[in-house]
Design goal:
By secondary structure, the protein is an all-alpha fold. It is built from eight helices and no strands. The protein has a single domain (17-139), classed as Globins (Globin-like). It is globular.
Length: 140
């Protein structure tokens, strides 16, 4: 590994660059179609996942230390705020993470990177859940 995960683009490179992220995201969305516990979160997405796949791939590129491709194409994003309108609680967060775990497990990543990546992905997943809970509390 050229650098420590989380420094520079070391995580992006460990994920296989943009092509590796596309493979990860494609498998993630297939897992969302396959896992029974993911039915609720799959229903939050359109039937055609083309744009969702692109957005997640481009977001992950910048999030993992490479170029901020998402903002160049779609504009700025704050992940929790962008998902606050959704009904997200622990089951939805955990289903999202389960889909990502399936995808990560099937990639040709170093085992230590797989663990690191899942630990890091918990953070935005939990922030989205908290944003959803907070939005609901404000409207109650």
């Amino acid at each position: 590994m050229a650098g420590k995960y989380g420094e520079g683009d070391a995580s992006f490179q460990a994920a296989g660059g943009l092509e590796g992220l596309r493979k990860l995201v494609d498998r993630f969305y297939r897992a969302m179609d396959e896992l029974p516990e993911a039915q609720a979160i799959r229903a939050m997405h359109p039937d055609d996942l083309t744009e969702a796949r692109d957005k997640l791939t481009l977001f992950l590129s910048g999030w993992l230390g490479s170029e901020k491709l998402f903002s160049k194409k779609y504009g700025p994003i704050v992940i929790p705020k962008a998902h606050a309108h959704l009904e997200l609680d622990e089951p939805e967060r955990d289903a999202w993470l389960a889909c990502m775990q399936v995808a990560v497990d099937e990639q040709d990543y170093a085992p230590v990177f797989k663990t690191y990546l899942m630990e890091q992905l918990f953070v935005p997943a939990e922030r989205c859940r908290i944003a959803s809970v907070n939005r609901r509390a404000q409207t109650d």
